[in-house]
Amino acid sequence: MTDIAPTSSLRRPSPSAVLELLKPITWFPPVWAFGCGIVSSGQSPAGRWPTILAGVVLAGPLVCATSQAVNDWYDRHVDAINEPHRPIPSGRIPGRWGFNIAVIWTMLSVALASQLGSWVCGATVFGLVLAWAYSAPPLRLKQNGWVGNGAVGLCYEGLPWLTAAAIMTNGAPDWRITGVALLYSLGAHGIMTLNDFKSIEGDRRMGIFSLPVHLGAHRAALLACLTMALAQAIVVGLLCTWQRPIHAAVVLGLLIGQFALMRRLLQNPREHAPWYNGTGVSLYVLGMLVTAFALGGLTA
To answer: pTM of whole model > 0.85?
Structure first.
């Protein structure tokens, strides 16, 4: 297959093109999850701000940015069909600069994580391995929407949450924090499915079996809704079990709000998926924070 990017590796990309490649807008989910991890630990941030700031940089501008660079490099042929204006297919990131940036950011991520403790370093390395396995051959987990979306959900929600809790407690997180972080990672599988709607045509032509390609738009959207709802319903049940009825009621209310929005999503999934990502997913992440406050009262 012919390379999309220009063959010259002498011309350097502009800082603006590199920043676009690293996609700052995608840093929000892991940074938000990292914040939830801090809150859920029940520990005061007083005196820990330098470490917390380092963790935020690790979660967003480093690890998440690395995953974006890796994904764009190995998806450059698909992006030439779906989104040719992106930095690599457009030639604004020339030659092998996309790959080189991904490698450099990987090394920077490990270097910073190694200064934050063994638990954080281990979680970071695991997340980076998943990031490369998701996009790069021979595994290329994104070829299978079931597995690939699970890997992304874990990297975006679960690992940042657990990393923050580990930073705050200087050790392995409480089992309740781990359980809830994994549940919200499961729900994020549905969010990732909705994100795949924007690239259905390119994925189909390139043989990438995302769930919208594999199941069809309506069935994939229905599965995404059920996955997100199931994870939150289990969280509500756990909060009730842990004697946090007010937090459980708030999360339930946010879930009911999502049900109302899901009705419109399912009417035309391909058209409404971006709209739902800005509305229903916002309610989902608010529920994460509410749950984190509930856990903070349990683990303090």
So the answer is: yes
